[in-house]
TrEMBL record:
It comes from the Bacteria. One of its GO terms (molecular function) is lyase activity. The keyword Lyase applies. InterPro entries: Formate_DH_maturation_HycH. This is Formate hydrogenlyase maturation protein HycH. Keywords: Lyase. It holds the Pfam family HycH.
Length: 161
């Protein structure tokens, strides 16, 4: 009986206004480009030594088991500023498609295998066509891409929260 009662309460909760508001994605109107600055292993549990070795090995080969990534905002722009900025890229280019993915998926990740393509595409844009904000965004973006080139475990997240 309590299981049935619990299911009814869950159903009612999921249909409630409070639930919809709590789970609805908030549109911030901003686009933030985050860079991975540091990582740490969540060691709050007493993990056996053999398991730690598996964890450390997985980290060494690039997997993120038990890892907390610490991302910091490097660039922030309004959605309109971001759209205008990426519109400076060649419309059919892979770089444009990658950066435009933000509007399709709500976030995109830039890994080391994207940095050359993106850096070249933004470096190719005529700076005379850019606003001061776009020049600053481009310079900072290329700076962060260069940092990823030198530290392959870094990456970027572009999202609105």
């Amino acid at each position: 009986m309590s299981q049935i009662s619990h299911n009814l309460d869950s159903d009612a909760l999921m249909k409630s206004q409070v639930y919809r508001e709590a789970t609805q994605k908030a549109e911030t109107g901003k686009v933030r480009i985050y860079a991975l600055k540091r990582k740490f292993v969540d060691e709050q549990y007493d993990v056996p030594e053999e398991a730690k070795q598996v964890l450390y090995y997985s980290l060494a080969i690039g997997h993120h088991l038990g890892v907390v990534d610490c991302l910091e905002v490097e660039i922030e722009a309004s959605r309109t500023e971001y759209q205008d900025w990426i519109e400076l890229l060649e419309p059919q280019s892979r770089a444009y498609q990658k950066m435009h993915g933000f509007f399709t998926f709500g976030e995109i990740t830039v890994y080391p295998d994207h940095i050359h393509m993106l850096a070249c595409a933004f470096a190719k844009v005529d700076k005379a066509r850019m606003s001061d904000k776009q020049r600053a965004m481009t310079d900072k973006f290329i700076e962060v891409l260069t940092a990823i080139y030198h530290e392959q475990t870094m990456y970027l997240m572009i999202r609105d929260r």
